[in-house]
Amino acid sequence: MLSFKEKFDHYVCDLCGKSLKALKSLKRHYQLHTSPKNYECDLCKKKFVQRHYLLNHCKTVHSTDKLFPCHLCNQSFKRKPELVIHLRLHTNIKPYVCTICGKAFCDSSALGKHSKVHSNIRSYSCEICKRTYRQKSTLVFHRRIHMAEKSFVCDICKATFTCKSGLTRHLLVHSGIKPHKCRLCGKAFTGNSDLVRHYRTHTKEKPYECDICCKTFSQKSMLINHSLAHSNDRPHACDQCGKFFKNRRILLDHMLIHTEEKRYICVLCNKAFRRNYHLKMHSLTHIKNIVTEN
């Protein structure tokens, strides 16, 4: 179970990738993974091995007395270590290096996830169908196959959501309220997460990295969608023919095959098409004719 001692005099936990300076510290750290967690937080139900871990958790996570803001992108963090890790994204400092391939990471947890690529460990298992995955994000995306029910409905546009928080965020779109404003260009957004994503258009930051091919993305949803390229998962099913697709956009495009609806109409000759792409190709014939006539 215990990992080897590295040349930098560090001991690395092979479960989470955390690096410790002493062997006794590593042994004590392993207790976090193996010991029973009898101390539970009354607010979020998270459990801990020791009481002082619980007290520290309550003080840092649930206290609103002190926030650590990032002055580069307007995000705030409840703990200073979280801010330090976040700042590495802006400065591109990556102190955690994979001893096998030399790839560097901003924090130890990212290194821990990456190391599973070399060992082919699939730690994340679906409790319903037992499929396994290397990344938690891929498992979360896969679970949507089993979560077809959407019980929270928007009274305004009838959009449906699997959780109440999703509906609450959606209702802000209808309210027109945009309290989160970009300090660089003045553009305003409904949610803070939208503002954070927008800041990346200014900083060119791509903090979400694929553990398999190392491609980076500016948004987590883009990484999750990309992850499907490395798996055989096709979670989006056509209710007409049962065919499966990797993402919803391809599914919607496919479903046009089953309908006679032709939504895209040429303004010059009124010819109708199922796909916008076909309309654009058709429009080129008019342009060529106009050029020829002139």
Automatic annotation (TrEMBL):
Keywords: DNA-binding, Metal-binding, Nucleus, Repeat, Transcription, Transcription regulation, Zinc, Zinc-finger. GO terms for biological process: regulation of gene expression. Transmembrane segments: none annotated. PROSITE patterns: ZINC_FINGER_C2H2_1, ZINC_FINGER_C2H2_2. GO terms for cellular component: nucleus. It comes from the Eukaryota. It is found in: Nucleus. This is C2H2-type domain-containing protein. It comes from Larinioides sclopetarius. The lineage of its organism: Eukaryota, Metazoa, Ecdysozoa, Arthropoda, Chelicerata.
